[in-house]
Design brief:
- With 370 residues, this protein is mainly alpha-helical.
- It is built from 14 helices and two strands; from the N terminus they run αααββααααααααααα.
- It has a domain of 229 residues.
- Strands 1-2 form a two-stranded antiparallel ribbon.
- Keywords: Membrane, Transmembrane, Transmembrane helix.
Length: 370
């Protein structure tokens, strides 16, 4: 991986998807874990969709977009907006988009799908829940193993890259920290009953476009928590304490926000988001490897701690700082470590399965990376 990718953190979600799709040594063992459960879930989901189609359409037409007084008892301006949307054309067509960028869709079908697709996603999640956790862990571990580095490569510890690192204020780290409290509030906001009310019973009547915007908002809210969660194995294998993890993330907070936003948004897509959560593990492992390569450059004094004026938006300096000499030194360091012998799947790469806001019910408990 070229180090230039460090300056495009969201790109690692695409890198992870590419590696998962093209690397048979990762794809095969990972998909073997979920393929049978996926087939069962898709079959049950298809039967449910076919069996409930007429009933759900009637519910949507009668109670949700059925005109004044029928929006679950909500009257007034909200209900009148629903009636206005339905009567906009003979078939209840509405414009979904921003300005001239959009498409005219049937409001009843649109609302029907917005309710049905998350339900199908939950059905599939029920069937793949256990194996999906193992597949995610295996994807991360196999990606780490594919880099052919010994355990020592990952366990050199935290190396400071800034001349003036940030200092945690009182209550910023540890149990009960401000970040943990904010995470709980975000978790409540992203709780499924809250989302149900926001998406289906408030936003659609106000504007059919708003439910499409909600995933962007929620992905931003849980971005840094998602990214930090995905790098928990990296922090553990480096044996970083809570203060070091806080400082590491704080120095790269916009990089973590950008990567976490992209990862969270991909995972919010109904149905296929479950499997994109696997590729996000691969992308997180690839990003961790590139960050660790940079740590080795500082450990070997190829790079010096950055002054405040040079840390850049992502906390890793400017892409223009990666000159030919640094690239050569990076390649030489990587070659020497490769000669020590590659890692294998039985090497400890940390273990994690934490509960994070907006991570979904499938991401609870702890899971081994092996």
């Amino acid at each position: 991986m070229p180090s230039e990718f460090l300056h495009i953190p969201p790109a690692y979600t695409l890198v992870g998807l590419y590696r998962l799709c093209t690397d048979a040594s990762i794809r095969g063992p990972v998909f073997d874990k979920v393929k049978h459960a996926t087939v069962r879930g898709l079959v049950v989901g298809a039967i449910y969709a076919a069996g409930s189609w007429g009933i759900l359409r009637w519910v949507v037409k009668t109670f949700i977009v059925g005109g004044p007084g029928k929006f679950f008892g909500l009257g007034g301006a909200t209900s009148r907006k629903v009636a206005g949307a339905v009567s906009a054309s003979g078939r209840g067509g509405v414009w979904v988009g921003l300005g001239s960028w959009g498409v005219d869709v049937d409001l009843i079908l649109y609302t029907h799908l917005l309710i049905l697709l998350p339900q199908l996603s939950q059905i599939l999640r029920f069937f793949v829940y256990k194996n999906l956790k193992l597949a995610r862990s295996r994807a991360y571990a196999l990606t780490v193993s594919s880099r052919r580095k010994s355990g020592d490569w990952w366990s050199q510890g935290y190396i400071e890259e800034w001349q003036q690192p940030p200092t945690a204020a009182r209550g910023e780290t540890g149990k009960g920290s401000h970040r943990e409290k904010q995470a709980r509030w975000v978790s409540w906001l992203l709780w499924w009953p809250t989302q149900l009310v926001l998406r289906h019973y408030l936003l659609i009547p106000l504007s059919p476009t708003l439910p499409l915007i909600v995933p962007f908002v929620t992905s931003f809210l849980r971005s840094i928590t998602t990214a930090e969660y995905l790098h928990q194995p990296y922090f553990e294998v480096k044996r970083m304490d809570q203060g070091e993890v806080w400082r590491w993330v704080e120095e790269r907070k916009w990089a973590y926000r950008a990567f976490g936003f992209a990862a969270s948004f991909l995972e919010s897509i109904p149905i296929i988001g479950l499997f994109l959560s696997i590729s996000n593990r691969v992308g997180a492992a690839m990003w961790a490897f590139d960050l660790e390569k940079r740590q080795h450059l500082f450990a070997h004094s190829v790079l010096k701690p950055l002054p405040p004026s040079m840390v850049g938006l992502w906390g890793t300096g400017s892409i223009h700082d990666v000159d030919v000499d640094i690239q050569k030194a990076e390649a030489e360091i990587e070659r020497k470590w490769a000669e020590r012998g590659g890692g294998d799947i039985d090497q400890p790469a940390g273990s994690v399965e934490l509960k994070g806001p907006g991570m979904g019910s499938a991401q609870t408990g702890r899971e081994s990376l092996l």
